[in-house]
């Protein structure tokens, strides 16, 4: 290791930013962003929406999942400028007027949350599933969330919560 | 004890709302004004002499504010003082003369942004003289192996031998002696939130850290010694934690680096590990090789056990010896066999410093011992369940290593899981390639690993009737704040929503040991909170008695009101009383609770002693299908029972049980932190290092057995780190039942099963 890198020490770079206009959680945003900025960096650092979590940065864990035009994406692998004109939903936009989305409520009631780091991505992946298939089987839920790693729960209560929110699961324990 | 209304109920977590809305704040999210970003230059070699480190070019880079190397490390660190208090010195320094693993810290940079800090690393020139490396602990002990530390002959950091009873006599009494070798691999806990350390000095020199470590109290105790700061001028604050299963436990290096950089730059600094740094630097679970001999009579009575365990400490020694002790004693205590010998060696290797990863050290020996119990049952033609029931330690026993078993629901755990799977109908009777297996485990419910093993808590009644718990017991996601809040709510007659919990700030809340040994938060912290709440209630009654002109004994709590028992119309709300106490009497209603377990430290040489005021038990039974063509194992059903004394929150306890099993399936079937011959990690990312996904984890059925531990709050023991102990042996047993081969080397991958099947085929068709 050691040695030099190409270019001069600490060379300044020309301003290459582009205007990005995107709807985030129902609100239109218009900001200048670098073309290499990921959607995750844009959300967390430019908009302060830290609910999308950064855990691996290589598309290996799903903690940064958000919905773009209703489809789940790893926001660490998507460039912000590629979301031009699109509709982005993050966990912060899921509850309406302080009322939780049924998935959020089901995650609480079924004990599907432990450390909570995977929770926002998991809930958004589940939302995309339920929007398409409101009554998924156990297997369909497992397949849908296979790209979202949880280290705490063994997925048992997450699957229960998703199926309950879709109306096909058993009620929460009391 | 009257009827419980909050304790014993599956209430939602107190932090669930913040977590499902994305508002929970983790150390990862903490940004301070004017904060610099830290990047670390790590050794490119697993073993090399460092001839020189030249940082002059990096220092001149625009945007770079501070650079440190080993030369900036604390001078004359008080190693003796640290050793006296910690029994071992944790890693705390950048490498100076020698690097001992790929990923070891050599220099660190603080810069205005991450990219600049990263670029600066490339301008640091390090001259290495590479040395041969050794990764495997058995290789490392051989004569001629590379010597990693000058003072450790054959790379042995620690070795110990202890014997109970008369092992040779025990073997002489045996009708059969079984002997085998079992092994487990290096695996990484892979918390989703990566290691974070933020250091900030205020204008008066007061140092604050924000981190997500396992050990903020220990750090806050030892860092002042190393940094030359008065203890009262340093604190650690923790936000929500994106889980922690033990990695980097006790490692002080990130703090030292950040404190020195913050001091040098005169600005706050933030270090966030990359995922690769997690894998190469943040302590993996050690690998373990276990040579085991067991003597047994024809009727299944175990007469002698001889255990030889070799583990790798990694490049520096710290918790290896402790993990060895903690792994051996519960394995010895699980069965009544009076003759037990243990010989352990903890060996330096050119790998990251190993750390505990859920159930401190026990996985390697437990896999060996429980697998061997299954092998013995098979060879004796006995049901593995019957073999267990014949030999297990029972309530009231003092075990061979001195554990006092004040409660055990192990027989019921066994019964529940075998009934769920349909053991009797299925064992040996399933269609080809399907099988069932079972195993048991035991672990501490807390542990005395230091003279201090207690817990202190304050419970305060606020003027609006809410209750605040002030405790240093940690929340890593396991639900401890919910459980402790339930206890306070129970004793003060308020709903769980009315309980607030203090933020973890080592300068503001009482010292706590943290979740060592089975998640002792419930047992130790729970007792302390309960006592504090009882004292707060006493004060509440005393104030109310004055207000109502009655005696405190005439009062009772009902629906958040203090009521005169014989004249219930005379009542005051708790809020009224607290308000009066605070603003009229100028007295806060605040109870202090202190719990000190009646235990001793294990003898450092013999390992004998009753070190926990309760022991948690588990049994697991599993059904699998094995594809003999591909070697794939499919788990059809997994039943896991834990004897947790009493479930304070059954839903949360089920979550611990299921989660612990789900997580351990990774090390058992999928994961291996792989080093190449040069000592580089070949899979340091979440694509090549395969964690269990929802498609890998089968349905898990959790059973909670309540044996009512007399030392626990409401009878509760620990439940967070016991369900991973028997899982591998239960699965290996089921695989044997399915296809007739024992896999004794983790992970149990398809290629090993296929190889074993091919060997079996060869043996069976070999000419007699």
Notable traits:
heterodimer, A: 174 residues, alpha+beta, Ubiquitin-like (UB roll), DNA polymerase, domain 1, 2 domains, 5-stranded mixed β-sheet, 5 helices, 5 strands, elongated, B: 768 residues, Aldehyde Oxidoreductase, domain 4, Aldehyde Oxidoreductase, domain 3, 3 domains, 8-stranded mixed β-sheet, 27 strands, globular
Name the CATH homologous superfamily of the largest domain in chain B: Aldehyde oxidase/xanthine dehydrogenase, molybdopterin binding domain
- H/E series of chain A, N to C? EEHEEEHHHH
Low-pLDDT segments of chain A: 1-10
CATH superfamily of the largest domain in chain A: Beta-grasp domain
SSE layout:
The complex is a heterodimer of chains A (174) and B (768).
Chain A: E1 18-24, E2 27-33, H1 39-46, E3 65-68, E4 71-74, E5 87-89, H2 102-109, H3 119-132, H4 138-144, H5 156-165
Parallel strand pairs in A: 1-5
Antiparallel strand pairs in A: 1-2, 3-4, 3-5
Chain B: H1 16-20, E1 36-42, E2 48-54, H2 56-59, E3 64-69, H3 79-86, E4 98-99, E5 105-111, H4 114-122, E6 125-130, H5 137-140, E7 156-164, H6 167-173, E8 176-184, E9 196-201, E10 207-211, H7 216-227, E11 234-238, H8 253-265, E12 269-272, H9 275-281, E13 288-296, E14 302-314, H10 320-333, E15 340-348, H11 363-380, H12 384-391, H13 410-421, H14 423-426, E16 434-444, E17 455-461, E18 467-471, H15 480-492, E19 499-501, E20 504-505, H16 521-548, E21 555-558, E22 561-564, E23 571-573, H17 574-583, E24 589-595, E25 615-626, E26 633-643, H18 650-670, E27 700-705, H19 727-739, H20 750-765
Parallel strand pairs in B: 1-12, 10-11, 14-15, 18-19, 26-27
Antiparallel strand pairs in B: 1-5, 2-4, 2-6, 3-5, 7-15, 8-13, 9-10, 9-12, 11-20, 13-14, 16-25, 17-18, 17-24, 21-22, 22-23, 25-26
Helix pairs in contact in B: 7-8, 11-19, 15-16, 16-17
């Amino acid at each position: 290791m050691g040695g030099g890198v190409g270019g001069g020490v600490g060379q300044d770079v020309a301003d290459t930013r582009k205007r990005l206009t995107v709807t985030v959680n129902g609100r239109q945003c218009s900001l200048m962003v670098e073309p290499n900025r990921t959607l995750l960096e844009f959300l967390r650092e430019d908009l302060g929406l830290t609910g999308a979590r950064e855990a691996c940065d290589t598309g290996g864990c799903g903690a940064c999942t958000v919905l773009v035009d209703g489809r789940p994406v790893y926001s660490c692998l998507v460039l912000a400028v590629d979301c031009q004109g699109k509709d982005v939903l993050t966990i912060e936009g899921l509850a309406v007027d302080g009322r939780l989305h049924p998935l959020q409520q089901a995650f609480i009631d079924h004990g599907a949350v432990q450390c909570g780091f995977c929770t926002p991505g998991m809930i958004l992946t589940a939302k995309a599933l339920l929007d398409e298939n409101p009554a998924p089987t156990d297997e369909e839920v497992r397949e849908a969330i296979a790209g979202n790693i949880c280290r705490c729960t063994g997925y048992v209560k997450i699957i229960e919560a998703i199926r309950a929110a879709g109306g096909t699961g058993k009620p929460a324990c009391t | 004890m009257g009827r419980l209304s909050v304790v014993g109920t599956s209430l939602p977590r107190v932090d669930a709302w913040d977590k499902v809305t994305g508002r929970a704040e983790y150390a990862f999210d903490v940004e301070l004004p004017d904060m610099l970003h830290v990047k670390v230059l790590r050794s490119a070699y697993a073993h090399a002499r460092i001839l020189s480190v030249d940082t002059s070019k990096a220092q001149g880079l625009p945007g770079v504010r501070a650079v440190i190397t080993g030369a900036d490390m604390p001078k004359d660190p008080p190693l003796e003082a640290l050793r006296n208090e910690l029994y071992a010195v944790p890693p705390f320094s950048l490498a100076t003369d020698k690097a001992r693993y790929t990923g070891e810290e050599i220099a660190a940079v603080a810069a205005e942004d991450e990219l600049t800090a990263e670029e600066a690393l490339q301008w640091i020139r390090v001259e290495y003289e590479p040395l041969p490396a050794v990764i495997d602990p058995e290789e490392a002990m051989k004569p001629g192996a590379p010597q990693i530390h000058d003072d450790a002959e054959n790379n042995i950091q620690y070795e110990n031998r202890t014997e109970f009873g008369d092992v040779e006599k025990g073997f002489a009494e045996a009708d059969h002696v079984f002997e085998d070798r079992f092994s487990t691999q290096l695996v990484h806990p892979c918390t989703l939130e990566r290691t974070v350390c933020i250091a900030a000095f205020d204008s008066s020199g007061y140092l604050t850290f924000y981190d997500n470590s396992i050990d903020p109290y220990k750090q806050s105790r030892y860092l002042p010694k190393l940094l030359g700061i008065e203890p009262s001028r340093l604190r650690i604050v923790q936000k929500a934690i994106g889980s922690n299963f033990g990695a980097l436990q006790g490692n002080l290096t990130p703090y030292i680096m950040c404190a020195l950089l913050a001091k040098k730059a005169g600005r706050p600094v933030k270090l966030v590990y990359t995922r690769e740094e997690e894998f190469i630097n943040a302590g993996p679970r050690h690998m373990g090789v276990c040579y085991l001999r067991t003597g047994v009579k024809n009727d299944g009575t175990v007469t002698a056990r001889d255990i030889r365990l070799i583990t790798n400490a990694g490049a520096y020694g710290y918790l290896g010896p402790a993990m060895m002790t903690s792994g051996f004693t519960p394995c010895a205590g699980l069965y009544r066999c009076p003759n037990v010998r243990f010989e352990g060696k903890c060996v330096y290797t050119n790998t990251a410093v190993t750390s505990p990863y859920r159930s401190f050290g026990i996985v390697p020996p437990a896999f060996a011992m429980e697998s061997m119990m299954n092998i013995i049952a098979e060879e004796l033609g006995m049901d593995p369940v019957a073999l267990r029931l014949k030999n297990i330690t029972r309530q009231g026993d003092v075990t061979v290593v001195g554990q006092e078993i004040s409660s055990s629901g192990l027989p019921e755990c066994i019964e529940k899981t075998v009934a769920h799977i349909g053991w009797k109908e299925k064992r040996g009777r399933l269609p080809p390639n399907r099988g069932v297996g079972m195993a048991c485990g035991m672990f501490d419910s807390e542990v005395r690993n230091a003279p201090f093993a207690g817990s202190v808590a304050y419970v305060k009644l606020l003027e609006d009737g809410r209750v605040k718990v002030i405790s240093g017991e940690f929340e890593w996601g396991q639900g401890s704040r919910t459980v402790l809040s339930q206890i306070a709510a129970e004793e003060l007659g308020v709903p769980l929503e009315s309980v607030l919990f203090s933020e973890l700030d080592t300068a503001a809340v009482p010292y706590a040991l943290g979740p060592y040994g089975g998640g002792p938060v419930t047992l130790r912290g729970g007792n302390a909170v309960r006592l504090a709440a009882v004292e707060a209630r006493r004060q509440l009654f005393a104030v109310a008695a004055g207000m109502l002109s009655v005696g405190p004994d005439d009062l009772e709590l009902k629906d958040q009101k203090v009521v005169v028992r014989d004249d219930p119309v005379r009542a005051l709300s708790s809020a009224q009383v607290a308000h009066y106490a605070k603003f009229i009497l100028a007295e806060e209603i605040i109870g202090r609770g202190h719990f000190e377990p009646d235990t001793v430290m294990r003898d450092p040489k013999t390992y004998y002693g009753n070190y926990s005021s309760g022991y948690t038990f588990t049994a697991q039974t599993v059904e699998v299908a094995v594809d003999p063509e591909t070697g794939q194992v499919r788990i059809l059903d997994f039943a896991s029972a834990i004897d947790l004394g009493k479930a304070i929150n059954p839903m949360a306890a089920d979550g611990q049980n299921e989660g612990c099993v789900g997580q351990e399936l990774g090390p058992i079937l999928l994961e291996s932190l792989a080093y190449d011959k040069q000592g580089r990690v070949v899979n340091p990312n979440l694509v090549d290092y395969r964690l269990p996904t929802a498609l890998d984890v089968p349905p898990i059925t959790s059973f909670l057995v309540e044996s009512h531990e007399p030392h626990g709050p409401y009878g509760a023991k620990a439940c967070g780190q016991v369900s991973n102990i028997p899982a591998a042996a239960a699965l290996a047993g089921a695989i044997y039942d399915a296809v007739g081969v024992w896999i004794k080397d983790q992970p149990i991958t398809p290629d090993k099963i296929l190889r074993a099947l091919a060997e079996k085929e060869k043996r069976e068709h070999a000419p007699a």
